[in-house]
Specification:
Distance between the termini: 80 Å
Oligomer: single chain
Low-confidence stretches: 1-19
Order of helices and strands: HEHEEHHHEEEEHEHHHHEHEEEHHEEEEH
Number of strands: 16
Mean pLDDT: 95
Structural class: alpha/beta
Strand content: 15-25%
Radius of gyration: 23 Å
Bound molecules: 2-deoxy-6-O-sulfo-2-(sulfoamino)-alpha-D-glucopyranose, calcium ion
Length: about 500
């Protein structure tokens, strides 16, 4: 016979073993270069695609309509999320920098507080991950097909498609975790990063779709400072036929590193699908504007196919949480490392303080804490994630962190006391040739400074939502510009940013 106490202990441990521990779990689903324009919950008027699973997170939780990044590029976004610090404070201002893993990060603090922590997928921070019980990461940008992963036990190669494999590993880990403890899982996809390689099951998705073009596909960059016309990220001049659009000069794809990784069967399926595009190109021989239009269509097909696999895999995670009684007790966030251009201003890629790259998609679900189907326009940021996750776990955040916990927004989508301005700073040299710049973003205005050419831009997003005409030198805006300049100066000091000449 069991004593009453023994019986209670047994019942208690069974309950715990079934996952009824009461601390909040955290699941962070993260993609690389996912434009909010390509999530149906964001209601893009161009209606490019449907993402029912990501939308489900929004319907059951909150959609953030203005989640902005302090530096619109990959490794910096990742370092900011982990540390809750601006790039100029965490040592990762650009993709060339190696993350110093001895820094305080939210996963480390969760781990110290008894959380099980894991990270799978794209990492891009060069040093080995710290603060995770288990991690398996793609080397650098990683591969879409049959990818290699760096693990603590050495490198491994897995057969299959990266987005599926990363999800498989995450679900396997949740399934085999110690169910008496809370967990934090970071599932970080490579998709939909350039050069946009879809899963074989999606090779013919959108085959007969004609995507509407963005209004600014043929932007001439008039009305802005010189950097906008000096970049190298145009669909017209910089998107390549052979690598980006998979149209070979010859008759095979052997020049593509991703193709080389495929097994003979996979190559056969690929060739069957992409030969059609090659033939179409040879038949049409598009030139000038027609070529840009044709490239845009192919770009959208591949990009949105990659997102189809992302969305399916988000669905797998949602289903797992449902089936295992974890939905209620999990703060689930879906976000990307930054926004992306889907032909707006004639571009692909990111980097600018302009809206499409500044804003990253972000939806969050946490039953009983976030009202279903709620929406927020407040200026939130990935800088805020670390403090939010720590608060959800009941772990105090270090005072040095530079974001703000999103808890007030969870309670009230537009709290009266919230940040009214935000500091931006991009400094990566080289690839795509976007000039370094800094700026201040408010709800309505944006002031940017390009220090190499000593040029200013200013936008009134209420009057000019597509940011086509800078009003930096418009006398009507002189007094607003002055205010923004002093706000920029204040934020620079507050965040500890370096000062670029000429000092204002
Ligand atoms: C690669 C891409 C670029 C991309 C950077 C950074 N070129 O260099 O288009 O901007 O990565 O991307 S590619 O031809 O190799 O795909 S990031 O997301 O890692 O910041
Ligand atoms: Ca990225």
């Amino acid at each position: 016979m069991l004593t009453r106490r023994q019986l209670l202990q047994t019942v208690g441990s069974v309950a715990l073993a079934q996952g009824s521990q009461t601390r909040t779990n955290i699941v962070f689903l993260f993609t690389d270069d996912h434009a909010f324009q390509a999530i149906s919950a964001y209601k893009n008027p161009l209606k490019l695609n449907q993402t029912p699973n990501i939308d489900r997170i929004a319907h059951e939780g909150m959609i953030f309509r203005r989640c902005i990044v302090p530096n619109s590029i990959c490794a910096p976004a990742r370092a900011t999320i982990l540390t809750g610090l601006y790039s100029h404070k965490n040592g990762v201002p650009d993709n060339r920098s190696k993350f110093d893993g001895s820094q305080t990060t939210f996963p480390k603090l969760l781990q110290q507080a008894g959380y099980q922590t894991a990270l799978f997928g794209k990492w891009h921070l060069q040093s080995n991950p710290t603060g995770f019980d288990v991690w398996e990461v793609l080397p650098g940008q990683g591969s879409y097909y049959n990818p290699d992963f760096i693990t603590e036990k050495g490198n491994i190669r897995k057969e299959g498609y990266a987005t599926d494999l990363i999800t498989d590993r995450g679900l396997e880990w949740i399934d085999t975790r110690d169910k008496s403890k809370p967990f934090c899982l970071m599932l970080q996809h490579k998709a939909p990063h350039r050069n946009w390689m879809p899963a074989a099951r999606h090779f013919d998705l959108y085959e007969n779709t004609v995507f509407p073009e963005p209004e600014t596909l043929f932007d001439d960059y008039q009305g802005r400072a010189t950097p906008a016309s000096k970049q190298e990220m145009e669909i017209n001049r910089h998107m390549t036929l052979d690598s980006d659009l998979k149209v070979p000069e010859g008759d095979n794809w052997d020049y593509l590193p991703e193709y080389k990784r495929m097994n003979p069967k996979q190559k056969e399926v690929w060739a069957k699908a992409y030969r059609g595009r090659l033939e179409e190109f040879r038949r049409l021989q598009p030139k000038g504007k027609d070529l840009v239009k044709w490239k845009y269509q192919q770009y959208m097909k591949d990009y949105l196919r990659c997102i189809a696999a992302v969305d399916e895999n988000v669905g797998r995670v949602l289903e797992y949480l449902d089936k295992n009684g974890l939905t209620q007790n999990t703060l689930l966030v879906y976000a990307s490392d930054q926004g992306f251009y889907l032909g707006e201003h004639g571009w692909f890629d990111k980097r600018w303080i302009y809206e499409e790259s500044l804003r990253t998609p972000c939806v969050a679900r946490w039953p009983n804490h976030i009202k279903p189907a709620s929406s927020s326009d407040a200026m939130v940021s990935n800088l805020d994630f670390a403090q939010t996750f720590l608060e959800a776990a009941g772990v105090p955040a270090p005072a040095t962190m530079q974001g703000i916990s999103l808890f007030p927004i969870f309670k009230n989508s537009k709290p009266s006391r919230w940040r009214k301005s935000f500091y931006y700073r991009y400094t990566e040299p080289g690839v795509h040739e976007v000039a370094p710049h800094e700026g201040v973003v408010t709800e309505r205005y944006k002031l940017a400074y390009f220090w190499e050419t000593k040029e200013w831009e200013m936008y009134d997003r209420q009057r000019d939502p597509k940011e086509m005409k800078s009003v930096a030198n418009d006398p009507k805006y002189a007094s607003i510009r002055k205010k923004l300049e002093s706000e920029l100066k204040r934020l620079r000091e507050e965040t500890g940013a370096p000062v670029n000449a000429p000092v204002i």
